[in-house]
Every structure is written in structure tokens, then in C-alpha cells.
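TA notes, week 10

Several of you asked for a full example with nothing omitted. So below is the full record: C-alpha cells for the whole chain, then the designed sequence directly under it. When grading your own attempts, check the secondary structure regions first.
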């Protein structure tokens, strides 16, 4: 008899889960552990929070020599390069350095002089990325693959589960979700979307049989100063937090694409809906006044 097993684990700063069907708990754990090990490997390689990660080493060598990359790292930076160019510079993995002036521990707004100074350290076009080497040209610049690595880890974990014969189940990595296939009876998985303004309330439930879903918003990491909300997604051109959508949920075949599209939606603000429609992606957006804009089937 095949049963549904839920396996929880910690990675990338949060609680995560894998749900798969298996004849036994031992077999389910053995298969899930292979996917979890891959997720942890990716975290160890690309997390800016870990001092020995590739990202931390690149940042440590800013203004010094370039570092050699393996084929996986080259691929991820090629993705970052492509998204930078196709977004006209809005998706920029050097923009994480702006956190230093938009820190959640600081209860005052940075002045324009501070913003102008930090913007000098931002700009993917400044980065040396040639063949299998990457380097930051000036001290104080940083790379942050936070908008790529987690979603990539979800897709890699899904690939490993698929290779182990798992065709029905899901991976939930901190809200970045990949559905391998429906329940054994053919029914979809209900995925709940949090309300961006009513803590603990559910905005919507989206039924998914296969594919990925990612949500970006201003309601998990934000500061409230003088009655105005300042989220954690920062515009690399202005040095300011984005301030249009309350949340953006996007469905796509791969989690890497869903995550990118949801983040880009926040950055594009009122221009995002047209792009999502052009990309033929399903979405659920919560606008500035709480209005819901969606094209879910």
C-alpha cells in the first residue's frame, strides 16, 4: 500500500517540507534525504550568510582577484546575466549591498547622499564575468544569489525525486513550491496564499496538479516608518524599496522562472501585468489598495 509522507527539514533560514507517496516511511525518508542533501549543498555553495560559500568568497575578494567557477556556478551567473539584460537592469544580483542602508534594525530613512553613495557599488554591468571567472571590480561590492539559488534548489530537488521515480508530490522551500504531480487519485494540491495585510489570514487557495509557484511581497520583511511600509525588495536604479504591489504570486513550469517573475513583478510595479501576460504566465496580484488582479484558470 502506498501512503503520503511529509518530511520536514531546516534549510535556507526556514522550515521546509517534502511530501511524497511511498510504500513505507523508511523508503520515503531515504528518497527525500537525497533531495534534502542537494538543497543543503546548494545552500552551502551560494548562501551569502555562510562564510565559506562561493558567494562569500567572491565578496571577500572584491577589488582583488577574480575567482574560478565550476560549470554550475557559471550557469547560475549566466541566468543572472540574462535576467539583468532582459529586465533592463532591474533584476541585479549586485543590489543586495543596499541592505546596509535599508536595514530592518535602522528605524530612520537613509538620506539621498547615503543612497547615491551605495548606488556606486551597484551594477552587474561592472562585474568581471568572462568564461569561467568572476570578480568584483571594487571593494565593497557584493553578489547575492538570493533571488536565484533557492528556486534553483527547488528545481534540482524535484529532478532528484523524479529520478528516484517520484511522480506525485511536492517540495515547499520557504514558500517556493514545486508540484511534481497530483495526488494519486488525480486531485491537485491546494496551495494557500497568505493575505499580505491580514496576519494569519488566507487570501486564496490555488489548486495545482503540476508546476511551480512563488510569491513575493512587502509583508514578510518590512519596516514601518511614520505610517509608511518599506519592503525588502529594492530597486537597483533608484536605491529605494518598491512600493506598488502588496504581493505577487506567479505560476510557472519551473520554480526558477516563477521566483524570477514574482520578484520582477514587484520591481516593475504598474508595468508588470503586461509582461506577465506577454510571458503567458498565470498570476494573482494584490494591488496598492488591496485589489486582486488575477488570471488563474
Amino acid at each position: 500500500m502506498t501512503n503520503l509522507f511529509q518530511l520536514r527539514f531546516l534549510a535556507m533560514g526556514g522550515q521546509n517540507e517534502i511530501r511524497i507517496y511511498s510504500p513505507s516511511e523508511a523508503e520515503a525518508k531515504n528518497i527525500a534525504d537525497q533531495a534534502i542533501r542537494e538543497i543543503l549543498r546548494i545552500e552551502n555553495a551560494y548562501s551569502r550568510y555562510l562564510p565559506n560559500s562561493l558567494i562569500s568568497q567572491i565578496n571577500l575578494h572584491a577589488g582583488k582577484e577574480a575567482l574560478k567557477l565550476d560549470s554550475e556556478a557559471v550557469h547560475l551567473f549566466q541566468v543572472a546575466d540574462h535576467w539583468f539584460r532582459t529586465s533592463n537592469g532591474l533584476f541585479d544580483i549586485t543590489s543586495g549591498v543596499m541592505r546596509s542602508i535599508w536595514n530592518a534594525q535602522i528605524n530612520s530613512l537613509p538620506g539621498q547622499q547615503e543612497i547615491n553613495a551605495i548606488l556606486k557599488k551597484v551594477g552587474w554591468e561592472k562585474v568581471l564575468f568572462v568564461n569561467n571567472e568572476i570578480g568584483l571590480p571594487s571593494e565593497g561590492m557584493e553578489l547575492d544569489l538570493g533571488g536565484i539559488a533557492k528556486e534553483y534548489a527547488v528545481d534540482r530537488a524535484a529532478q532528484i525525486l523524479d529520478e528516484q521515480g517520484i511522480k506525485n508530490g511536492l517540495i515547499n522551500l520557504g514558500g517556493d513550491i514545486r508540484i511534481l504531480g497530483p495526488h494519486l487519485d488525480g486531485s491537485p494540491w491546494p496551495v494557500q496564499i497568505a493575505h499580505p495585510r491580514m496576519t494569519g489570514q488566507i487570501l486564496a487557495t490555488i489548486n495545482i496538479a503540476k508546476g511551480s509557484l512563488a510569491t513575493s511581497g512587502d509583508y514578510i520583511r518590512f519596516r514601518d516608518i511614520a505610517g509608511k511600509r518599506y519592503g525588502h525588495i529594492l530597486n537597483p536604479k533608484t536605491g529605494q524599496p518598491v512600493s506598488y504591489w502588496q504581493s505577487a504570486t506567479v505560476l510557472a513550469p519551473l520554480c526558477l522562472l516563477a521566483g524570477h517573475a514574482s520578484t520582477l513583478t514587484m520591481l516593475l510595479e504598474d508595468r508588470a501585468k503586461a509582461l506577465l501576460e506577454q510571458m503567458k504566465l498565470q498570476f494573482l496580484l494584490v494591488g496598492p489598495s488591496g485589489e486582486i488582479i488575477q488570471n488563474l484558470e
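The longest strand covers residues 3-11. Use that as a sanity check on your answer.
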